[in-house]
Amino acid sequence: MLLEVNVTFGVVLAVLLAVAAGVVAFARLGRPRDSLTAGGRAAAQLVAVSLVIGWVMRYLPLLLAFLVVMYGVAAWTAGRRVVPGEGRGRWWAGLPIAAGVVPVVGALLLTGLLPVRGVALIPVTGILIGGALTATVLGGRRALDELETRRGEVEAGLALGLPEREARLEVARSAASDALLPGLDQTRTVGLVTLPGAFVGMLLGGASPWEAGAVQLFVLVALMVVQAVAVAVVLELVARGVLARGTPARG
């Protein structure tokens, strides 16, 4: 086992979480309680998943229901992050995630590369949903931020006769594309800077380094596809005004 799960594990974990919250507070990077809440939720959710997942993997209907729940949580999280408060079209934030994940997972199932078994389907689909979630949130937020900051340029484009969608795309496209950088950097530096979870997990499970490397490469390439599609779709939704932030109330 990679880490010994004992009392020392719990103490060190609590200390690390407290340090993370302390740094956030000291550097004024946000609300320290957000770090504490995130860590607490992660612990509770992983305990629950650990208890349930072994049972879920035995029955196909429960397996599919579990995947739908994963997607629903991702869509809800993306909506809250991209268009918080009085934003418009929050549930549309689930579309970029589905647009990226469903075709890739479907292709893997149809070609037989991914078996319809929980031990394979849940981790692969979870990784892809997580990557699509990150790309959707980063791309959507960056695009909307850029439109707010450079509103005058959008209006100038409209004055020159550009359709609203085109004017918004010209401003937001470059900013939204930044959401692809974490995935690209991870792929470029894999094996040199980091050893991702799929690779380490397969090694710990007894696979050869060659097999683990092949699976990790496949996951990274699939992630690039999923994230590129997610960013393209969320950018289109922002450009068309489907995803939009509300105007803050003024006192």
Main sheet makeup: none
Count of helix runs: 10
* Shape category: globular
Number of strands: 0
Succession of helices and strands: HHHHHHHHHH
Mean pLDDT: 86
For the structure shown, list the relevant keywords.
251 residues, 10 helices, mainly alpha, 0% strand
Written account of the structure:
Helix 5 runs parallel beside helix 10 (209-239). The longest helix has 32 residues, at 118-149. The protein has 10 helices and no strands. With 251 residues, the chain is an all-alpha fold. The chain has helices at residues 7-26, 32-56, 60-82, 94-111, 118-149, 151-159, 164-177, 181-189, 197-204, 209-239.
Describe this structure in a few short sentences:
The protein has 251 residues and is mainly alpha-helical.
Helix and strand arrangement:
Elements: H1 7-26, H2 32-56, H3 60-82, H4 94-111, H5 118-149, H6 151-159, H7 164-177, H8 181-189, H9 197-204, H10 209-239
Helix pairs in contact: 1-2, 3-4, 3-5, 4-5, 4-10, 5-7, 5-10, 6-7, 7-10, 8-10, 9-10
